[in-house]
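From the pipeline queue, job 12 of 40. The input is one protein chain; the requested action is below.

Action: predict structure.
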Amino acid sequence: MAANITTEYKLNEKIMLIQVFVVLFLCINLLLITTFFSKEVFYTTMRYVLFAVTLMSDCLFLFVTDILLILSYYRFMIQMWLCLIIYIISSLYMFVTPVTLTAMTLERYVAICLPLRHAELCSPRSTLHGFLIIHSLSSLPCIVVLSMFFASASSASYTQGRTCSVEIFIIHMWQGHLRSAINQFYFLIMCITIVFSYVKIMRAAKAASGEDKMSTWRGLRTVGLHALQLLLCLIQLWCPFIEAALLKINIMVFINVRYFNYITFILAPRCLSPLIYGLRDELFFHALKRLALCGLRKKH
């Protein structure tokens, strides 16, 4: 009895700590989104638009996954239709961020290696097309998983109350294998794109001189940070398989690993976006500082 109370207390502590991180992250992101809409240059430039897409995607994804985490830890039962809505949002925006990061890396490649075509390829019209392509590509894994679920599930399963998780949409083992194969395919394509862009920008950096060299090396560091952020996001795709295996072995190990995965592979990579553009980009940082100072003056 005492051991159960201690375990529950530690669990509550972990959940509360995560809530603090999530609220802090959402507040920072909302400030950055407000800054994005404060200047016309931001919402007419592709790299800033893509940055805003990652911010909004991260906010939605964190909010929904936080709800899923609470439901999972406390074993709350919800109706299948509500779990379906939560799953669609979390599955879509789990992929939107890494796909957008890949698009941002390609934008840096075009800006540095193909500067004469940058205005044409990264125009506002192309940005809109890019936004639609990103969401279309990100929705494919979700569509495949749900199509398999609707084809295999009995009609009674739609009205049952369940603890909501990704695993309840995987009925047969082959469905899990197919989902894993899709995730690995996305992982491979994104990694190839990042490595290709990094190598090309590195070559351009070595060949550049003077001010161009500094700008190119800055672009290379940005791509390097995108690569780290993307790696952490993509490792997250493997987490459900590790957690499902641990659930069969020991419930406490499963809880501790899920907590670690949430902090390391969901929260951490999404904290890098504000660092990469919110603080490192001079134009955006000055606009952010001006907005913060205006807010403080109004408060006083």
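Job complete. The CA atoms of residues 75 and 154 lie 23 Å apart.
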